[in-house]
Amino acid sequence: MTPSLITIAFVVAGWSIFAKGLQRFHLTAPIVLVLGGVAVGLTTRSALASTLNTEVAQRIAEFILAMVLFLDATDVRGGFFGRDPWSAARLLFIALPLNVALSALLGRWLLPNLSWSELVVVACALTSIDFAAAPAILRDERIPEHVRSLLKVESGYGDGIISPVFVCALAVAVGESHRESLQEALKMAVPPVVKALVIGTIVGGALALLPNAAERRNVMTEQSGRLLIIVAPILSYGLSIVIGGNGFISAFVCGIAMAGLRRSETFRQQLASADDIGFLLAALMWFVFGCATVMAPGNGIPWRTVVFALLVLTVIRLAPVMLSTTRSRLSWQDRLAISCLGPRGTPSIIFGLLAFNALDAQPADVTVMTVVLVVLGSIVIHGAGSPAVARMYLRSEGSRCTS
Predict the structure, then answer these.
(1) Phi and psi for 342 in degrees, rounded to 5?
(2) Which residue segment(s) compose the domain that 190 sits in?
(3) Residue 33 resides in a domain
């Protein structure tokens, strides 16, 4: 464990010093950490699986996911669903479920050894988008601001919305391995989700309304405001766990409530301190992902899994987005851009690790393999896809100017 922490610290320090130069070559911190994880994984391959498949590793992954979901929820600007709520709602509540359903159906053909519940677990792990490894997409001004805003909303809320489905599907999959009925499995899964929703709403609402009142009376400092944001997901996660709720869902709801009710001109600046902590925690998961890329191949990579990963990154993303945004205010270029710019990242890695800990050996291995292939494929495809989408807009503007 200590060598791994030293390696992570060394890689982050090195990247920080040369960050601007490395970004010219699209070497973001997550990509560099993946390479560091691969190097460590090659030397610790035999002990890696047993280390990841522990309750301690599961709790760490859940806590990191809680921080990631909280920060994603608080990072959405322009109201609960951004500046174009109707288009955002189409992406989140039509395209997202369709993506999960189509991924599960595709998996039934290409991953026939998995049950339906296990296929839904895999689909949930591969659906949420994340721009940690491809931040240039959200900074590229050649891509219209409203498109980048919609992608930011989808990235902020998608993983949180998919989390209850993932939790229930995972509970059913585990119950099936213990010969439990569907009803018994759902009885175990649904109450923690409900408790998480309640705790997250209460904690997020309280930690928004009370500071609002405190700031009006000038009894808070800038530092205390920053500390409050760091404490919020920890408090929501901890209280939910204590009463038997789901901690990371609670943190996500806490973030939505806090961002929606907080009335402070400095709230966005205060989020910066929590963003840095979230960045470091996510860095740990990218390092683990690098280690997993060494472990995952095992006895080889089945061609069916490769095809599944490629289709998930392309057709299975494109079809639901294009269908859900039909007759919307978005142009066909906008719809195509959103379809093409859907990188996978931290949430997929963490969902994959949680599934690896909970499922039996064979479905766990398949889940890890698909997550590795999809995330690695995403780094390549979306790294090259962003400039192509930007050029599409430039050509479109050029043709309008000449016509």
Answers:
(1) -135, 65
(2) 56-402
(3) no
Query: Per the domain annotation, does 31 fall within a domain?
Result: no
Summarize pLDDT for 88-140 with one digit per residue, the tens.
Answer: 999 999 999 999 999 999 999 999 889 999 999 999 999 999 988 777 788 88
| pLDDT tens track for 77-97 | 766 777 788 999 999 999 999
Output the CA–CA distances (angstroms, integers) from residue 389 to 77, 142, 258, 263, 343, in the order listed: 24, 9, 34, 37, 14
Residue 203's domain is classified under what CATH number?
1.20.1530.20
Distance, in Å, from the CA atom of 157 to the CA atom of 129, rounded to the nearest integer, reads 10
State the residue for tokens 């498109």: 147
CA dist 396 and 139 (Å) reads 20
User: Which residues touch 164 (CB under 8 Å, ≥6 apart)?
Assistant: 193, 246, 249
Determine which of 13-17, 95-99, 186-190 has the lowest per-residue pLDDT on average. Answer: 186-190
The single-letter DSSP state of residue 263 is: -
- Nearest Cα neighbor of 191 from 227, 124, 239, 240 is 240
Tell me if 49 is assigned to some domain: no
Domain count, the chain: 1
Residue with tokens 């001004």: 141
Contact 136, 26 (CB under 8 A): yes
In a domain, 39, yes or no: no
User: What type of residue sits at position 152?
Assistant: K
Residue type, 51: T
The size of the chain, in residues, is: 403
- How many Cα atoms sit within 13 Å of 65 on the Cβ side? 27
- Residue 381 DSSP SS3: helix
- Give this prediction's pTM: 0.89
Instruction: For residues 267 and 245, give the distance between their C-alpha atoms in angstroms, rounded to a whole number.
Output: 28
107 close to 127: Cβ distance less than 8 angstroms: no
Query: How many other CB atoms are found less than 10 A from the CB of residue 235?
Result: 19
Closest among 319, 346, 348, 322 to 335, alpha carbons compared: 322
Gap between the Cα atoms of 99 and 105, Å rounded:
10
Q: Give the max Cα distance, the chain.
A: 67
As to burial, measured by CB atoms within 10 angstroms (0-12 exposed, 13-18 middle, 19+ buried), residue 198 is: middle
Give, rounded to a whole angstrom, the gap between the first and last alpha carbons of the chain: 63
CB burial of 9-38 (b: ≥16 within 10 Å; e: otherwise) equals eebbeebeeeeeebeeebebbbbbbbebbb
